[in-house]
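Repro case for the chain-ordering regression, as requested:
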Amino acid sequence: MRPTLPHRRPVGHCDTALVAAERRVHPALTQKNRQDNQLNERYQVEVAVTGVPGQSLSPWANTPSSAPEMLQTNNYSLVLLIQLALLTFDLFVNSFSELLRAAAVVQLVLFIIQDIGILFNVIIILLMMFNTYVFQVGLVSLLLARFRALLMLSALYLTLSICLHCWLMNLRWMASNRFVWTDGLQVLFVFQRIGAVLYYYFYKRTTEYLGDPRLYEDSPWLRDAFARARQ
Amino acid sequence: MPIAKPKKKKAKKEVIEVDSPEEKSAEEGLELEGLSSRRESESREPLTPEAPPSPPQKKKKKKKAQALELEGDQAKVANGEGAEQQGEGEEITRRTKRRKKPRAVEMHFHNELTVEEEELSNDHAPIQQRSLFSAPTGPAFPMGKVFVERNSEHTLATSRLRVDLQLDEFMEVRTMWSTRDVAMRVHSGFRVIGLFSHGFLAGYAVWNIIVVYMLAGEQLTTLPNLLQQYHPLAYPAQSLLYLLITISTISAFDRVNLAKASMALRGLLTMDPAALASVLYFAALILTLSQQMTSDRIHLYPTANETLWPPGSEQQLLRPWVVVNLVVALLVGLAWMFISTRPDMDYTEEFLMAMEVEDYRHDEKLDIPT
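-- result from build under test --
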């Protein structure tokens, strides 16, 4: 009985790098591990079918996404869509809010939604981190060390945004279409906009990074990290 | 060739009779009925086999096996001989049937085929007797049950080869996405948006500075004309410029993988185009943001003419603004040229594919954690 063959992605130049990288990352993958044996068997079957060694999937990519402990593709896609939508809205407000200041309340509503969106984005990224297997086994410090740049940037950007919005609303509330700029406001404005660019970049990168299935399953490197943390 | 037909029929009978003992020893018998209707069906449901018919029924054979691979192969071989004898209509029918071959082949591998009795045609037209290697030219409707030899050594070898080929196609068609695939697809999509943004920003910046210089006149002598004509465009242009520079900057950061500071620094020292473009876009971003105040002042020129624009202050306020806009246009144009030299370079994509989860232990001091 021919075993069930795994799916296969379009082969690109990065697949070989992926396989090589994963072999480098998981040096303890030996035949003694029962799970590794099964994965290797599947790997060999796939090689036998395709007849092209090195172009097959890595064992990690063959893991079915329907396993309860895995991050399911549909859920991840939905979360990614929400995050990108919030980022897009934030960029839109940063770019065009100054054009929509005919009525002060319009700009106020936009600023409130933007700040809430930043907060939601931070909450979502934290929830994604909490959903990883790395966090569930107790290696919080590993995750924080890995994602500290984004967390710090998010907090900084949220602070700068709230300060700028409060200052602008305070200046424009009585007369929305007048010249309110000062040197201090200009500096805060520049820092907030530059912080936005860095926030967008690191946030996008982090959400893409959190799509790695290896963060949601056991692996030798995780066992090593856990052993080191316990020492 | 009417004379030859009876002989061929006898030969066929002999072949069938010879094959029947082998069929008896086969693991599964095959009974085929109504091949034309099944051939066009896209259903992949396994077809349940019927009980092996009695030997006398095997003698009745109507070649509807163009849907089956075995008989299709015979037709292939036979076409060289039988093409002369067939009419154009039959050839067209045969070609149409051959196009259905891939789907029929998939059905073939279920090893079980069933044809409903009702699909059999009651029109018992005389079966044209042909040579063993000629393609069937009978009407395209089921006439009777056909037994096909299976599980012989040759058929098993060929069927296994076809299984491998067809399963490859099947796997490619039924590709399942993982979360990593989704992430890579999002990253690739943003790279496309970034590529568009690079070019659009460069063109827009050049257009903007040309308009400013045309309105400002030679040596910036007609600045009131610039204020009068350009004030509705100042703030929207500033907003659009910030939007495009932001997208372009993020795209350039992605290409150089800025989070890996060691890699980005090495790229900058080696004059990597993506690293240089990142620096240029970031500088353009800072310069653009620094002109937010002046752009708002230009935007408010009609409403607060004397307070914001005292007479004689146009040169003092607008000359730096024009120069900065010119520098921004040069920076984004130059960055776009650098990006265009290697548009497919993307270090972040390679990083995402590798996703070294252990690198935080080795590059803590050099890299910016994600």
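Ordering looks correct now. Helices of chain A lie at 13-25, 34-50, 73-96, 104-130, 133-136, 140-172, 183-209, 220-230.
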